[in-house]
Amino acid sequence: MLIAVILALAAGTYGFRVAGVLLRDRLDLPEWARHLLPVGAATLLAALAATAALTEAGGFAGYARPAGVLIGLVLAWRRAPFVLVVVAAAATTAVLRLLGVD
Amino acid sequence: MRTAYRTGDARVLRDVAAIGAAMLAVGASFGAVAVAAGLPAWATLAMSAVVYAGGAQFMAVGLVVAGSPLAAVLAGLLLNARHLPFGLALGGALGSRRWQRLLGSHLMTDEATAFALARPAGPGRRRAFWLAGVLLFLAWNTGTALGVLAGGAAGDPAALGLDAAFPAGLAALLLPSLRDRETRRVALTGAGLAVLATPLLPAGLPVLLALAALALPLLARRRPPAAPPRTADEAADDRSVRAGEVSC
């Protein structure tokens, strides 16, 4: 049973991944649709970042995580190096949790 | 030109390493959690190698242990459906040969997609995708193996604040593309929709719902077929109406 779950999940996930890539070759998209594809991808990534920053299991994720992400965002906005953005976000959240804020 | 490419690649490598370190730790947590939940070591390792989608893996382990294997598959696939539009947007960024498309597809993650799309289309984007794809795959699977071995000693990624590292990294990779006004409006509207829908819809759907924000540029593109030539005032009114839509 377990192996069936893993194989079904693997096949389905790979199916989604490869379908988009191969469809792109076959579809003859008009210019406006081609222009919307990166906008759509940016929208999905923004939605992932926002939901991952703010929510956990359908509810509010607590204050420590969004606070860390906010620090990271401000640094990214000021064009800080990417590594600093990631480390500062994690460190802020970790320190807040250490202080008992969650 | 060649040097510019190389420095760009070195930067991508360094940036990917930061996210890779976080993925190593979260992968270790997955390995430890799965084994602690009663999954055999081989199944845990196999899952990271062949499914290779963190969110769906954590969810599947929880649902399998709870005795709902069918729900584990369906919920995991709903969560991963976003990869289809990612593949559409990446397209040729994986390479022109067939094996590159087939193998690269398996390495597609949110982060690899974000690293690739953060660079202009061309060879630089292709190298960013493969660099991020291969390194993050290795980090996730090495992490899983370490977690399986270490068990409870793997530590808690939440104590390290790693749950803040991923959204911050994604947002940092996205910022340059948000300088484009249309992309910014659609992406922020979609993100807002997804957050609002998260308490209401099963995991995976809120993020897909964000794509509804693409209606903004689609509707804006529609012009009445026999409209008289518009004055500058009318065009300004139209813009303010559309700005109003976004802000609410």
From TrEMBL, chain A:
Pfam families: AzlD (PF05437). InterPro entries: Brnchd-chn_aa_trnsp_AzlD (IPR008407). The chain crosses the membrane at residues 39-61, 82-100. Keywords: Membrane, Transmembrane, Transmembrane helix. It comes from the Bacteria. This is AzlD domain-containing protein. It comes from Micromonospora chalcea. The lineage of its organism: Bacteria, Bacillati, Actinomycetota, Actinomycetes, Micromonosporales.
